[in-house]
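User: Can you help me understand a structure? I only have the sequence.
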Amino acid sequence: MSPMNPINPINPDGSIGPGVGEGLPGDGTRRTRRAPSAPPPYVLTEDTPVYVISVAAELSGLHPQTLRQYDRLGLVCPDRTAGRGRRYSARDIQQLRDVQRLSQDEGINLAGIKRIIELENQVTALQSRVAELVDSLEGAATALQQREAAVHASYRRDLVPYQPPTPQSSALVVWRPKR
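Assistant: Let's start by predicting it. Here is the structure, written out as tokens:
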């Protein structure tokens, strides 16, 4: 487990909070009332919406009003609670940092950043589709090889004697039917 400061949940590597499956920060022990073979009741992933807007603003280094503006523009869209409150995930906070970096360091306007994010999402979707198609193609190739092997296995394996071709003669054979 990576060392964490309970006041600042940002890890030294720049990630936020405990890693997937690392549990909660502390002494590293986690007591549970369930059997050891049962899965944990709630697993935090980088897509789990857990941070309210004030915490997300502090973690990303932005003002809460900026986060609201980014949400209105569609740059970073956090999940919503039943009461319509925003809940940010670790992935959302990383995306906020990326938006800030592109805006401040690279000088890209917000419309350009939105287009970059859309294109990155499109590339990700296309890469997953290509992976699906490759898997499907590999499955079809395997099925074809199995069918081909079944056809070859069905061939008869009888021995047929080899007879060399006879040389052609110039003899004439006349056939007369019996009466």
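Now, to help you interpret it: The radius of gyration is 35 Å. Residues 110-153 form the longest helix (44 residues). Let me know which part you'd like to focus on.
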